[in-house]
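Action item from last week, closing it out:
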Amino acid sequence: MLDIRFLRENPEIVKENIRKKFQDRKLPMVDEAIELDQKRRDNQVEADQLRAEKNKISKEIGKFMAQGDKEAAEEAKKKVAEFSKRLADLEAEAPKIEEDLRKIMLVIPNIIDPSVPIGKDDSENVEVQKFGDPVVPDFEIPYHTDIMERLAGIDLDAARKVAGNGFYYLIGDVARLHSAVLSYARDFMIGKGFTYCIPPFMIRSDVVTGVMSFDEMESMMYKIEGEDLYLIGTSEHSMIGRFIDSMIEEPTLPLTLTSYSPCFRKEKGAHGLEERGVYRIHQFEKQEMIVICKPEDSMDWFHKLYSYTVELFRTLDIPVRTLECCSGDLADLKVKSIDVEAWSPRQKKYFEVGSCSNLGDAQARRLKIRVKGEGGQKYLAHTLNNTVVAPPRMLIAFLENNLNEDGSIRIPEALRPYMGGIELITPRNKAEK
């Protein structure tokens, strides 16, 4: 959410930013917000003047009564009544003006960083850098669920009966691999100096609207019927929400946190071959990283965060690339975002396994996350988040890139301590389940 003062003083900059995001339908909202803001301020000025005049005349009533001037006293009382009625009208109108203005401000997109490439959608995202050599072996790579089934590691049919499409049972070595990756990611981030957290997996509506746009909320979040609670789509929501309406002492910054959670998403409109299996699902687990810092440090942290994900994937022998999100692919709160994509030797292309975002002060403004600096100066913090790993999607890249011709899976050295020291997962007969 933008600062209303910035919008008031720079309407053309805000409109141009909307155009860069190809959201022209929102252009009239800028003028609407300015009108509402002006009305709010005019009403406040009038209300303050009425209170002052009311107080002044109220004091005069006693004076008139003491002087025996009943006519003047009655006239003064009439004025006080008129002022009181008008003041009541203004006070009743104020909350609606505030709410109407807030609704508009919540959907006007944040100002993107000047370095963000301009494009309509994710087809115009820009490759930044590749890490590792993408290899296509001289044997066929099966579809990821076929690999898992040969390892007796997945049961989709039972999951459909129990929960419907978009769910799964992971079993045996595949389930163990899933947990091992998360544990490795946790310790990897702790090694980078991050504090490990497990947050609540449900959040209230005021936190939801504080951390994400309405479009994201509608497409992602599951509402708990009859309660003011939503299942989280990522632990970032709960982790940033932890600091709602707080004052952080500047010397404690940056706050660097890594969190584990299950994630729940509607994933509307997901279909097609590559959406099957465990690629796009309603429930998964994730290790996340979150940073709260001073504004001048946020871009440095942005580059650090996605570099950590790249480093982790390379320790697991998975080639990756970074892809900068163009203006039209950025969610409304984001200033800048980079996706990390892993190599798929089966598809012979990269696919998304994580996303790093700098949200500037947008979340902090909505949630009132402030910093107390030197001399008592107060300002809004900057917030960032990034995926460390999100299996089981990450498992797709892991299995494909570590698959041997005989169907076995090589365990990279970094992961072996989390897999009981084994170096290889071998296929099993289904009867062995």
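Closing note: The radius of gyration is 28 Å.
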